[in-house]
């Protein structure tokens, strides 16, 4: 349990310092009978509802079995390190998950980490090869369109935070949808999804 808490603490620190992360996939247009992100956040008025949103997002984004997840949620207000809103910590046999459901901004952020996936340094040459292959970029597009079922047109898609000379331990991708809403995804070096942030 001590090691699990340490992993979650590292995930929290990395999320705050890098701005990387994850989003709720069902936040599409009302014309399709689905709630907007702001509507979902408004309904997160209890620990149970926050955990429900987190579990469903983790299942849809990462393919986890939501019935195998355990954990808790807490509400943060006026914290020096956490945004106002719900912070949900869940875990299963392989992964630790952290979910931020932010109250004053229309965003949901999902991050996961595990002992089998430590953050590894990505060399400049490795990053160059990753960008040139575009496999991770294509993977991000497919995840949003197919796995999350978002049929809006992707207006722009690009690798982010790829400055030469800067240290990197993840591959960041930004997708801008036709209505201006944004997905920001981060991947481990091998292409495994680490986090997803959805901004409405």
TrEMBL record:
Entry keyword set: Signal
Signal peptide residues on this chain, from the entry's feature table: 1-21
Name of the protein in its database record: PepSY domain-containing protein
């Amino acid at each position: 349990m001590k090691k699990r808490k340490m992993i979650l603490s590292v995930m929290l620190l990395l999320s705050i310092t890098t701005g990387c992360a994850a989003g709720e996939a069902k936040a599409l247009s009302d014309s399709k009978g689905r709630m907007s992100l702001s509507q979902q956040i408004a309904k997160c008025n209890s620990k149970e509802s926050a955990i429900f949103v987190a579990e469903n997002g983790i299942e849809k984004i990462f393919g986890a079995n939501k019935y195998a997840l355990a954990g808790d949620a807490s509400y943060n207000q006026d914290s020096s390190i956490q945004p106002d809103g719900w912070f949900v910590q869940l875990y299963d046999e392989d992964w630790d998950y952290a979910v931020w459901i932010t109250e004053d901004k229309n965003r949901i952020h999902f991050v996961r980490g595990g002992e089998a996936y430590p953050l590894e340094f990505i060399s400049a040459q490795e990053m160059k090869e990753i960008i040139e292959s575009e496999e991770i970029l294509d993977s991000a597009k497919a995840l949003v369109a197919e796995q999350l079922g978002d049929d809006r047109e992707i207006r722009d898609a690009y690798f982010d935070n790829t400055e030469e000379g800067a240290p990197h331990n993840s591959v960041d991708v930004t997708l801008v949808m036709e209505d201006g809403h944004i997905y920001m995804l981060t991947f481990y070096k091998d292409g495994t999804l680490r986090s997803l942030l959805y901004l409405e």
